[in-house]
Amino acid sequence: MYLLRLAIKSLANRRFSAILTVLAIALSVTLLLAVEKVRTEARASFTSTIAGTDLVVGARSGSVQLLLYSVFRIGNATNNIRWDSYQHVTEHPQVAWAIPLSLGDSHRGFRVMGTTPGYFEHYRHGRDQALVFASGAQFDDLYDAVLGADVARELGYALTDEMVLAHGTGSVSFVDHADKPFRVSGILRKTGTPVDRTIHISLQGIEALHVDWQQGMPGRGAASVSAEQAREMDLTPKAITAVLLGLTSRISTFAVQREINQFGGEPLQAVLPGVALQELWSLLGMAEKALFIVSLFVVLTGLVGMLTAILSSLNERRREMAILRSVGARPRHVFSLLLLEAASLAFAGIMIGLGLMYLCLWLAQPLILSRYGLYIAITPPGPYEWTLLGAILAASVLMGSVPAWRAYRQSLADGLSIRT
Amino acid sequence: MQPFLIQLDAVTFAWPGQSRLLDIQSFALYRGERVFLKGPSGSGKTTLLGLLGGVLLPDSGSIKLLEKSLADLSAARRDRFRADHTGYIFQMFNLLPYLSLVENVTLPCRFSAVRRARALARSASLEQAALDLLAGLGLSDPQLLRRSVSELSIGQQQRVAAARALIGNPELVIADEPTSALDADSREAFLQLLFAECERGGSSLLFVSHDSSLEPLFDRALSLKDINRAATTAEVL
């Protein structure tokens, strides 16, 4: 492989432009690989926002909409589920556990969700990871609240702090529940799911907040009920927003789903969270594909830069080619030399890009984990990455054949005479 | 009579769209000969060297190198034939700046198996063969050998180029104005060294120059003007 040594030495002789070219390719490769990495990890994280739940039940609407308000806490339910319907569902012999969710209130931009202690026991995300308390414990008292990691961090709450919840889901609310403040009983560890942005209270807590409300307004004067009085009242909810179901056996999922969908009491809908998540991702996937295409174009730009650098060097290298011809190099040697030059530049770019990507990953990994709850595993490049990198190398050789062909023609025309 | 090394017979050549540049009835070079070919620039000298190197083919007539007609070989075979049997020295800037002195000298052995084999038949390694030749041409200072070729004087560069042309003992060495950038004293010194090495390696030398002061040093001197009938007719017209 004497030609390869010649190509590398010739490049080293023009090291300034060679280094710039390699750097351009390296940066574009880093970008492409990083985008690919984040893309696959984000998809994996997204599709595992909710795990371990077999069915999500809500009022009949669309499966994506149900998923959006019950799991992602985006938008509102069009209808609630009556409490007796919920009880009917929980009594189904195949149902192992059921977690009611009641949404509708907020606190400074974060959603408040009423649920049961079963939520902390059965909710799973990622690869079957349970919710873990960073401090404190689940709610015990009627006015206890468990905060998601982001809520606690962004609002600066610590255990036993008091908070006043607001009615409605806007970040600015004109009606609040100042008469019934809540106390922070626990803070969850970061999950990278919408759980981080949720304030969890008991279903009874939700009920207590609204016990004296009439026609969407708090009761006044004699009609108002104090926090202590509410404790004595019947706080069984009349309606909830959605239910998460765990079944005794996976096999019965479709049968239970059908039964719920055909429930006579009121129009209900049960969806498989995995299927609905895939459906939702296919909507969001457009942005992800666009990102991939953009980074492909950046790589192309890097390679075109290389092409430009080699092409513009050809004229000043006619002497070099003529000398090589005079010592016995044939035109095909000149062709191979330039092809090897392009391949060497691209290979160096790819390897440095790969190294740079891992360096960035290593530096950013803890930051991404704490900021976005996204754990990006540092794994060696898989077959997909190698295919991608191989394709880049192949593309560079293909592009390198343009200057190689020109040099080939040039050296045939110039022969042994040195023209400068 | 020694056998022919180069034999030109009724060779004509014209660049496309131009009038005839070369018309050589006969020109021959014997093995072991040192021939001075005088030709001012523009006399078709470079074209003649292109024909001898097999880079160009004549419009008519035949060119034989080592009794082999170049026109009968394919372009690739001509290239290989040239690489195996001819060494070149040009006017100046003969060397690749990114290779070391020794690497520059061994370059022909990388492209010609014949010359590689011949060099290795005499020396233990290509590097040794290069060092021997360089020493013969007066370049043996180890400090000098370590220098980058662009740091050498022109005279030193031309001696490296000569070593490169001579490595692997090609039958023919073609020198195209190799001394025109040197001063008069170094010219003769360079030629003496070149002659000695050609003789040692058994190479013939075709020396092309416009400087007739060097003529007496050669076995035979020719003028391109005299052998090229196209030039005379051009002058008459």
Give an account of the 3D structure.
The complex is a heterodimer of chains A (420) and B (237). Chain A has 13 helices and 15 strands. Chain A has 420 residues and is an alpha+beta fold. In chain A, strands 1, 3, 4, 7, 8, 9, 10, 11, 12, 14 and 15 form an 11-stranded mixed sheet that branches. Chain A has a two-stranded antiparallel ribbon with strand order 2-13. Chain A has a two-stranded antiparallel ribbon with strand order 5-6. In chain A, strand 3 (95-107) and strand 4 (110-115) form a beta hairpin. Chain B has helices at residues 45-52, 75-85, 101-111, 113-122, 126-136, 142-145, 154-166, 184-201, 224-227, 229-236; strands spanning 4-13, 22-30, 34-38, 60-65, 68-69, 86-89, 172-176, 204-209, 220-223. Helix content of chain B is 41%, strand content 22%. Chain B has one domain (4-236): P-loop containing nucleotide triphosphate hydrolases (Rossmann fold). Chain A binds chain B through residues 2, 6, 9-10, 12-13, 319-320, 323-333, 415-418, and chain B through 46, 49-50, 53, 55-56, 76, 79-80, 82-84, 88, 90, 93-99, 107-108, 110-112, 115, 164.
Describe what is shown at a glance:
Chain A is α+β, with helices and mostly antiparallel strands and 420 residues long.
Element-by-element helix/strand order of chain A: HHEHEHEEHEEEEHEEEEHHEEHEHHHH
Helical residue percent band of chain B: 40-55%
Percent strand of chain A: 15-25%
Low-confidence stretches of chain A: none
Question: Strands of the largest sheet of chain B, in order across it?
Answer: 6-7-8-3-9
Essential attributes:
heterodimer; A: 420 residues; eleven-stranded mixed sheet; 13 helices; 15 strands; 16% strand; B: 237 residues; alpha/beta; Rossmann fold; 10 helices; 9 strands; 22% strand
Q: Which SSEs are present, and which pair or pack?
A:
The complex is a heterodimer of chains A (420) and B (237).
Chain A lengths: L1 H12 L1 H33 L7 E5 L3 H8 L10 E2 H8 L4 E13 L2 E6 L2 H5 L1 E2 L3 E2 L2 E4 L7 E4 L1 H7 L6 E2 L2 E2 L14 E7 L9 E5 H7 L17 H5 L7 E2 L1 E6 L5 H9 L6 E4 L1 H42 L3 H9 L4 H42 L10 H32 L6
Parallel strand pairs in A: 4-12, 8-11
Antiparallel strand pairs in A: 1-14, 1-15, 2-13, 3-4, 3-10, 3-14, 5-6, 7-11, 8-12, 9-11
Chain B lengths: L3 E10 L8 E9 L3 E5 L6 H8 L7 E6 L2 E2 L5 H11 E4 L11 H11 L1 H10 L3 H11 L5 H4 L8 H13 L5 E5 L7 H18 L2 E6 L10 E4 H4 L1 H8 L1
Parallel strand pairs in B: 3-8, 3-9, 6-7, 7-8
Antiparallel strand pairs in B: 1-2, 1-4, 4-5
Helix pairs in contact in B: 3-4, 3-5, 3-7, 7-8
